[in-house]
Amino acid sequence: MRRTATRRHYLMVRPTYFDVEYSINPWMDPKKPTFTEVAVAQWEWLRNLYLELGHRVEQLQPRSGLPDMVFAANGATVVNGQALVARFRHTHRCPESAAYLRWFREHGYRNVRQARWINEGEGDYLLAGPRLLAGSGFRTNTEAHLESQEFFGMPVVGLTLVDPRYYHLDTALTVLDHDTVMYYPKAFSASSRRLLEELYPDAITASDDDAAAFGLNAVSDGRHVVLPQAATGLVGQLRERGFEPIGADLSELLKAGGSVKCCTLELRAGQTEGPRHGR
């Protein structure tokens, strides 16, 4: 099967101030050394790859004292030109919301506001065709799901996360195209697993090793799938399904519990842009 890539529009934040100064997920250990210059180099590789693939990349200026701001996906959810900005659970990240609100307003978004309930943006909201898949269990409140459904005017399907290593939905599930996802079943409650099996009977499922390599923190344009290079099992399954996996090394950012998708917030201005031929 030949897959078709679609040109995307992303927002990213350079990890100028990246560090692990506190621990708000199991991946973060402030005792381990971090190397900001390595994080920047890995991030620049990812940004340049998006440009090479024909995607458009915007940048929001990083703020001193906000070392996790590089994880732009958590800052908002954007669908059809409407931006619902995050309300972070942990005080360490709360100041990021003001930066996103200002950016969206300065860039002409008319329907933009901060979420009323705890809502960590595309960390827990993934657009899958006609619906938003929404995570809860560790960060985003279930009350936020109804708020998002009303704000965007589209169905929101709640999924409960149960493994603290996979604290955001985007660490346990990737939307590959409108009809296809890959996910790690053990990250979800029994009822959520049954729901995913019903919605996506042909989904790709990740092994323990691939999930632990953050292989599901990936970005797909419908053809190319950028994911951590250590997730070799997923790489093989993607090729079998006609996708073109591209391995990434974001190992420095993984020290803070983030990888490809965490660094990438998709800006959806309206209907999906027309298909194009990839590399």
Automatic annotation (TrEMBL):
Origin: domain of life: Bacteria
Annotated Gene3D superfamilies: L-arginine/glycine Amidinotransferase, Chain A (3.75.10.10)
Does the keyword field hold Transferase?
yes
The record's keywords, sorted A to Z, are: Transferase
Is Transferase given among the entry's keywords?
yes
UniProt-listed GO biological process terms: L-arginine deiminase pathway
Which molecular function GO terms apply here? Answer: arginine deiminase activity; transferase activity
Q: Name one Pfam family in it.
A: DDAH_eukar
| Entry-linked NCBIfam families | DiMArgaseDdahMtb
This one is known as Amidinotransferase
Organism expressing this protein natively: Candidatus Protofrankia datiscae
